[in-house]
Structures are given as structure tokens and as C-alpha cells.
User: Fold Molybdopterin-dependent oxidoreductase from Amycolatopsis rubida.
Amino acid sequence: MTATIEPEVGKSRRRKEDERLITGRTRWTDNIALPGMLHLAVLRSPLAHAKIVSIDTSAAKEAAGVVAVYTAADLDPEGAIGMPCAWPITPDMAAPRRPVLASDRVNFAGEGVAVVVARSASEAHDALETIEVEYEDLPPVLDLEAALAEDAPLVHEELGSNKNALWVFDSAEAGTGGNVEEALSSSEIVLKRRFRQQRLVPAFMEPRACVVDPTGAQLTMWSATQVPHILRVMSALTLGIPEHKLRVIAPDVGGGFGGKIGVLPEEMMAVLVANKLGTPVKWNESRSETMLAAHHGRDQIQDITISAKADGTVTGLKVELLANLGAYNGLVGPGVPILGAFMFNAIYKIPAYHFACTNVFTTTTLTDAYRGAGRPEATFAIERIMDELADELGMDPVELREKNWIRHEEFPFTTVCGLTYDSGNYEAATEKAKELFGYDALRREQQQRREANDPVQLGIGISTFTEMCGLAPSRVLGSLDYGAGGWEYASLRILPTGKVEVTTGASAHGQGHETAWSQIVADQLGVSFDDVEVLHGDTQSSHKGLDTYGSRSLVVGGIAIVKAAEKVVAKAKPIAAHLLECSEDDLEFSGGKFTVKGTDSSTTIQDIALAVFAAHNLPDGVEPSLDSDATFDPENFSFPHGTHLCAAEVDTETGQVKLRSYVCVDDVGKVVNPLIVEGQVHGGLAQGIAQALFEEAVHDESGTLTTGTFADYLLPSAADLPSFTTARTETPSTTNPLGAKGVGEAGTIASTPAVVNAVVDAVRQFGVNDIEMPLTPMRVWNAVRGGAVNAGGPGGEAGGGLGSIDASGGAQ
Assistant:
């Protein structure tokens, strides 16, 4: 056996996973079939808010193939089971019980009221049609501001209010900055804008699914989840199952984007039904059920006030949010806007900052994490209002950003929120992006089109961003009342033949962990890339972990692997010294070999693995094992950053938007696999651009979702998107040994404001300073024709900022 010579980290390798994932020759939750397995179908409320007067299941029980029909009274007669929320953001946060099945009332269209168990999925769904439910209508609660009025109808009458919680951060009170009100009252320029983050659906490829087998010594659950370890813990706590008697497996999962981070009523329902009947059961939702009942993302009203000196120096930022939680608290839903609280200041040296978020219950599907989780919302608001400030001052938007951003020589830099950014170079990323984009030439073309009154106007959008990646460290999360830690676990098993098995607590759903982890281990131990096998997603083989979300896999889980590999080398060193008959101090390890300094006497890690297996000639007191594990809890977040530039052509006669070019330069620290990074960036860009131009979950006045299929909820295809020009700069993270930063959410975070800024820039000369997302042709056309700041509002055909400009020094 020979050691790997060429470094694996930094190499563009095709993913090990792709052969089975692309061909479908793998195991998804839905293709699991167990002997005697029954199928579940859930009857869902067509009404957003109503009392349940009666449920008649008699006909369904007699339907062909039906084994049982259950309501809440059957599965939870004491009304004691409620879905968990792991993030109570304040001590007084309202926490209404979310039941497995609704019993006395429904609080959103799509909430389950009964479940049919049948011998086939088709028979279960057919029987749903025979269940008769009598409802008594209650008034829906849909508008965020109206929901907080004293006389508003209540989603949960027992709470006495639709307010979930108020969470506030103030830099003056925290001792991290100045007083915002003083900054606003004393500054020469004060701008206020209102931005709307529309509701989105995490449109993953594979709908949610769950299989439960109660027949073994352990109860086994297969689930299309991002969080098998968290699901195991929360299921045990929710249902009272001894944790060691529950095994959770996430097989290959077809995408998540945060949409599979929850602990679902349907998963708990499947466990309850399986235990009742003593037989395996499967639940698999249809695409329309996904749209209706899987959690949604975003949905905020953002009131943003920024103050500045006449030369463009920002002096203060005030953020007031209304966040729509839907009908219940999700697993981390209440905390999603709070993640954004630390990112509204972005890359800027803002001396005074105030953030206040009011979470609100409405009779809509609950919201929870969606790719970026709070950080895209924050980046959108600050990058939009920076463009507005540049326009007010008559400055180039890039020039204004440069005047206020943290310069590379100022790192590490402690922000107005108290976070310490360890490294970055915003100047280098921006300069490279401008060069690739042809910024100056496009500005000249834009001016020519304006002077010629060209019906197709050109707009240029800028978005600079940073984000907090690697949802950790545990102490910080604890200070925010998050219900779990931020550490991650990994173990390395060194087999007798020198092959390596890696178990990781990170649970992939398309990110390429098996490939990237193999590259890391290959370099750390000097073994071949092909000699590494990565095991994940099964709480039996990988018994410990905190799973995958928040761009944490590499910068937390990957570092746990590095730490475990270091322990392997440390265990191997005394054995190598014994075999080579030298002192440990005389050994050096490189490329998979221990070599006696100054000689050619050496032994490989594979040779040592075989010697350990035989255990014939080991030093006294040394155990015959190289296997090692590690749990890594970082001291800080990682902070990737970048500059995104978008050129958009807007047909003022039709409102049609065409993205002419898109350039992004991201700094994600050291890159393990450039090909995977490119894929993550491209996918993120598609989702962020989709929010800007295409996607919106819409409820009608009764609370019915009117965008419940892909015929109504518009997803872009490749034909709707431009070819992206991507590049990177590199400032390694100083907080982990790989120097890596997160990349999974970068494209989504940065692209939405870049696109909206470009479109607004194209039509600003018509008096438009905002258009509500998504920027459909009708909304753009109406905005141009109206020439209005306010061309509509939530639910209207065009939207805009509702604030006003005050250049006289007074806050509004």
C-alpha cells in the first residue's frame, strides 16, 4: 500500500454519492417495504380556523382495505402530547400545544384531523373521502398588524393574544455600541423603509415520509429528515419512549433546505399507530400535502430606519420586525428571526443598533427554518436600505458600502452586536467582482439607455454580505435559550487492512459529505480517498450528533473528524516508535508515514493497523486499538462573506425582468472540494433569485392556500436563470484548523437583494424605490406606471417601501 501524495483537500472530485443518487439506485424512505406494512393517510382540514363539531369515521372503517381509523381521541385521549419547540426565545414566550391531530378546533388549513390505516396507500387515501367532519367557522387571522390589535380574533383563545414573544437587542443596553435614538435625532440623514419578506415553501425534491417498525427489540423509525439525532431525542421526550429503545435512520434524503428540520406530528402519529397495531406503518405525503402542511419560510414585515452623516457615514440602524410564526411554534421557528438579529449590521461599522422582533400567531401553516434562516432576511433589509441611502446621497452604491465596511486590516473586528468577525477582505472580493462584471462599462451603458429613453432599461444590483455559519458554539446558543448545543461528533475506525470507516453526526441530504469527509481523512491519515467509507444518518451506527443545518457540517462536523484523526495519529505514534525501535520524539508523521528523523526508516499507518489487529508486538500498556472519536464545540461562528453583482434588463412596457448577467465572488475560507462549493453556490443562487422574482405562498382572505401546486407556486427552471460567473477570494478562518467557513447558504443570502436592487435601479428614474417580492411582470409594470413608492402591499400586485425620507436631521 502506498500513501497518498497529492493533497485531497482543495481537489475537485466528483461526489462518491452521485452514482447512486442520480441513478436512483439507493434507499429513500418511501421505497422501504417491510413485511405486513400498513399505510397511513391523513385527513386535513380545508378550513384555516374552525371548531370541530363532530367527526364521523364509520364509513371509512368499512372501506376496502382499511384496518383502522383514528382521531385525536383515539391516539391522545388525555391531550397530553404536543410537538416540541426547542427555542423558547423569552421566558414568557407563548407556547400553545400543537397536537398530533386536532381535537376541538383547527388552526390552519391543512391541519390533520384524522388518520386512516389501510393495506395500501391508495386504499387509505380513498377512505379519507368517506370521513365526514362538521366544522363551525371561526374568523381567520391573517394580517400581522391586524392580529396584534386589541379586538383581533384569536388563534388560541386561551392565550388572550396573538403575540408569541417580543425579543429585543439594544447596543447601548448591551454595552456593544451607542444609543440609536440619539443617533437618529442627531444625524443629518434619516431614512425609513418597510420591506416585505414574502412566505416561501421549501420545495425539496422528496416529500416528507416516515416508516416505523415496532416489531424488533428497538422501535425503528426511518424518516426523510435532516435531523435524525434530534428527532430521536425529541421523539423520546414527546412520547415517553426510552431513548435507547428508539433507533432513527435518515436514509438518502432528497433535499431539505431547512424544510426537514422539524419533529412532525405525522412522525409521532406513525409511532403511536405502529405501537397500537404492533405492525410496521408508512406515511408518505403527496406534493400538495407538502405545500399545504410542511412548514413554510420567511414571512416578515421589516421596518428599517438608518441614519447617516451627509458624507455617507452610517451612524445608526433601527430594526423593527413582525414575524409570522403561523399557527404554532415550530421546532426552532421562534428563534429564526433572532438569528437574523446579529446580521442586520452585516459587514458595516455601525456604531448604534436597536433590534426588536415581535413574533405573531396567525391561522396559517407554521413557519420555521428555510435556507439561511434569518440571515437572508437581514441581508435583504440592510442591502436594500444601503441602496436607498446611496440614492438619497447621490453616491454610487459601491462607494457607500466601501465607506462603511470593515477594512481587512481591522480584523478581528467586534461588531455592534458583540460578535467577533475573525477574518475577511471585503475590498478584495468587491474589486474582483467588479472586474468580472464589467461594472464601469455597465454603468455607462445604463446612462446611455436612460438618456435615450430606451423602453428596456438596465439596472445594476449590488449585495455585499456576511453570515454567521456553523450553528455553535454551545455557550452562545445557551445564552439565546436555544434548547441544544452546537457541538458535533465524529469517530474513525481503522480496519485491519488499513481502510477507514468514518461515522459522523452530520446528516447529509445532498451536500456531499461522503466525498468531502473522505478527502479530509485522506489528508489527515495519508490513506487513499477510495479507502475511506463514511457512515451517517443512523443513530445506531453514529450514536451521537446534532445533524445538518445552518452551514455547520464542515466547520463543526468536519473539524470533529480532524480532531478524531489527530487522536488516531497520537495512538499510532508509540506503536510506530516501538516497531521502529526509536524514541517517539524522533518520529515525524507525514503522508501516512511515521519516519525516523534523518533516516529512511519508516512505517505506514496501514502497517500499524495490521500490527494492532494482530497485537503480537505492542508496547506494554498500549491497548490494541487506533479507533478514536472527538466532539468539537467551536469557540466562535465562522463568517464567510462575498460580493454579488446583478445586471437586470427591465422592459418598461411589459414589466418583464431579464437577468442579463450575474457575478458572485464568495470568500468561504479554505475550500475542501471546489466542485461541491460550486454546486452549493449555484443552488443557493437559484433559491435566492427565485424569492426575488418567482416564489410566493399566498393565502386568500379565508386563509386557504391558493398556491398549493407547482402550477400555482412558480419555481424557476434552468431556462429562467442566467449562467452565473462565480469566483472566490480566500481569507482562512482562524477559529478552526481547516481554515474553512460555511458555504451552503451563501448564494441564497446574497442573491435576493442583488436582484431586487438591480430591478429597482433600472426603474428608479420613474419614482420607484421598492417593489414587493416576487417582482412579477405585473408588479413591475404597475410600479413603473404608478411611479409610486407605495404601489401596493401584501397581497397587492405591486408593493413598496412605506417609509419616508427625512433629510432634515429628525427621526421618523
Summary: The two ends are 72 Å apart (CA to CA). Confidence is low (pLDDT under 50) at residues 788-812. The longest strand covers residues 314-326.
